[in-house]
Amino acid sequence: MFNRFIVFLVTSFLAIPALAAENLIINTDSRESISLNGTWQYIVDPYDTGFYTYRFTERSEGDPEAYWNNPVTKHRSERREHGYHPSNSLQVPGDWNSQKKELTYYEGSVWYQRDFDLRSLKKGERAFLYFGAVNYEAHVYLNGKKLGMHKGGFTPFNFEIPKELIKKEDNFLVVKVDNKRHPQEVPTVNVDWWNYGGITRDVKVLITPDKFIQQYNVQLDPAQDIAESIAQDRFVVTGSVDFNRDAGKGSVTVKIPELDFTRDYAVSGDRLEFDIELADLELWSPEDPKLYNVELAYNGETLSDRIGFRKIETVGNEIHLNGERVFLRGATIHEEIPQDVRRAYSKEDAEQLLGWAKELNANMLRLAHYPHNEEITRLADAMGFLVWSEIPVYWTIDFSSDEVLEKAKVQLEEMITRDRNRASIIIWSVGNETPVSPVRTAFMKSLIDKAKSLDDSRLVSAALEVHYNPETNHINDPLGAYTDIVSVNEYLGWYGGTPDMCRTAQWEVDYDKPLIISETGAGAKGGFHADRETRWSEEYQEWYYQEQIAMFERMPEGFSGVAPWILVDFRSPKRNHPEYQEGWNRKGIIDEKGNKKKAFAVLNKYYDEMEAATAR
Ligand code: GCB
Predict the structure, then answer these.
(1) I need a labelling partner for 566 at 20 to 30 A (CA). Which of 74, 300, 387, 556 fits?
(2) Which residues have C-beta atoms less than 6 Å from ligand 1?
(3) pLDDT tens digit string along 100-147?
(4) How many structural domains is the chain composed of?
(5) How far apart are CA 29 and CA 37, in angstroms?
């Protein structure tokens, strides 16, 4: 952590633009901040004219034609070929595709601009520009200077604003956003979802003390034997706090008011670790999603968070939550609001999506196929969902490239760092349906090792593929040797044959680990009714799930959950049947207008039965 910070200090001192993302500041809602959400102005720049000269070299800082500059025209004879204007405006957060008809299909660069005022900083205070997410590549400029660049469309990042750059009024902020897909990026060019571009999540200026808590992790100590803890009513909560720099002298006060816990910890160096012994702790679970206020006070700043305490582990081929076996009644979602055809970003959006999952009686969410916004993971904590959170290592990434691996690791670290205090998250997924080869397996193992080194308190998985065989469907992807749970996507009856094939299907797993079906699904156009053998009818999809559910009875012993693909229809440019798809992946059990298809009731009934059968 310290090294990256030093790199930034040195580079800013030498006035070289710092291009490495800085260490992430977490729990930004709890800090002093100024929201930069709202109306921004924009320029669409498909040729990157604002970035490159006509010789295709990056423009220099003061170049009046660079779109991060806004030169004042002093005389009418002066030539100007760009400018920001209120008639070209976009709302932030939000994707551009849903806001401007002419940008629906656009993939390329858009320059975003807005002004903001900032109160003068007191001695020792610092200011940071924080972005919840920008898809995909963001170059950030303030008052004509580059602050930094970030790649990765679904994770947060921040840049410190050098003091000498800050003005009280009219700070000129420009972000170049580029969502072009590339073979060497994560995800790569080929995905089954809409590539929404833009500043898709919150933007804010954070004001912090000179020395502050940058990250922390407070959770039930994963090492304790939970059955013993419950029997003895003696729980250990373990905490770590990372400061932005060497803390020098001082102390952190940790409070959990509801448990009457307050203690001061003397600090030195850039990290503090502590253990707290507690009795009368109510554990977090889907049935009782108990959250405690946890406060960390340091150097004049108090961070407060809502934290649940629970233990997740595998025991043989079972998944155990708080010492008891749990069956995952899943719902998979994309971060999309179907009726508006846009990215989800707000609390209300999260309530819509998670509300549907609750109606289904799901207890688990698979957040596909990239880290979702913090409103979703925080609401999952509050509503009691177990969560699978994933990085977009999807299908055919360039597994032979160290650079691509590095990019995936950055996203993995940003995902884990932001959300490691969320009790709901039980599984970090390092990818989806990656094609089997030694180089792929080495790449994925390296991600698993990284996830474990960052967080050894959760399970790590990846959605694997299975190839159908009339004799047995053999789950033998070598990656299964390294994941904690074996997760497979299976579409028997949709991509392979018709649903009745489930009746004779046999399943065999090479690993003595919990097995979950991380996807299963069939397409149906909402409102289209026919006999059950007619593809795209609601009756076909209903039949598909009836046969699947009957088959689940015969799954191998460690069968521990299922996540139907998908809760609601979602936009995908790959889905071009003119009558039934029209640019939508129709595997939702809810259609794009929010109507439940017939299959919804089938799954709902199955979940009610599973809940009764596995009541804890
Ligand atoms: C899959 C993918 C998912 C697709 C789905 C489909 O296996 O993981 O991203 O959208 O199949 O509908 O084909």
Answers:
(1) 556
(2) 192, 369, 432-433, 489, 519, 565, 585, 587
(3) 999 999 999 999 999 999 998 999 999 999 999 999 999 999 999 999
(4) 3
(5) 14
